[in-house]
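Quick log. Single chain, no ligands specified.
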Amino acid sequence: MQIGIYDPYLDDVGGGEKYMMTLAECLAKQHDVTVFWDNDGDLAKVTEQFSLDLKGITRRKNIFSPKVSFFERAGETKKYDVIIYLSDGSIPLIFSKKLFIHIQQPLQSLDYSSLKAKLKLSRVDGIIYNSQFTANLNKKLFPKVRSIVLYPPVTVNQKPTKKENIILHVGRFRPKNVGVEDYKKQAVMIDAFKSMIDHNLKDWKFVIATALHPKDEAIFDQLKKTAQGYPIEFLINKSNQSLWEVFNKAKIYWHASGFGEDLKAHPEFAEHFGISTVEAMGAGAVPVVINAGGQKEIITEDKDGLLWNTLDELRRKTKRLIDNQKVWESLSEQAQIRAKDFSKERFCSEISHLIQK
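-> predicted structure:
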């Protein structure tokens, strides 16, 4: 089969790019796969960042660029059996035999009632979501289009490493994202950990591993200053290998996206899935994460992790793990088992089956 893949944010090197380029890697094992993009360097960056093997794919010019005419795009897309398109809600009018749209986040109310929009949607064979959370919030926008939940591929790198007294958080530093300040709530977690130290927690440290864009360095420095005098460490723009080393050492994993926000009005402020949570679980860290968004689909309370709604719960449940080794061991073991449900092998198998239906 001839398969085309388009990601309009390929130069961003985020979770969506890992998802889409892993699709490309998986499908290239059995099919001819083309990625529509103009810059070889961006593709190389994604390949390196996520340790992907994209030798089997072809890069061709971005036919979805505004510079490309409708007629050229239509003619090119006719050549493909399947096109998979990462979308922010926009639907392309193209003429491949099959078209799958991938949506990663809850969308604002969009109007698809026009004749043109209906024509576009009539050509969509299915919308692929990264979680049931995202799917449930968007289905009403596309009532006649098939919904498919395909959880992201998560690398589970289990190594017999001696654990240390580390609480870990991994997440890009986003001082403002989707209209909310401190999207990952790293400042909130710093304050929660400082409170635990002030209440006599000893011999533990909090590690924040983050990807930092140069334009955000000044704001990030302000965040670091709030942590001075406490056992809080920042790992900035580290390689995959360095991240796995800290995953394998950490005992507990924290995540807080969506805390303090009106998630009924703005569900997009919550974590849409939670790849770093699963990665931590695979390495045996017990997740203590906010009871919101896609995190609730990953974790079963008191079986393979702990969920919290208030900062008091976050501190109290974390302290329970710190004080009770048997509870920590049981949850750590089950977390590793649960993480395998999100393997790359499962992801590749499901997408291969989907395109051939």
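The chain has two domains: 2-150, 166-342.
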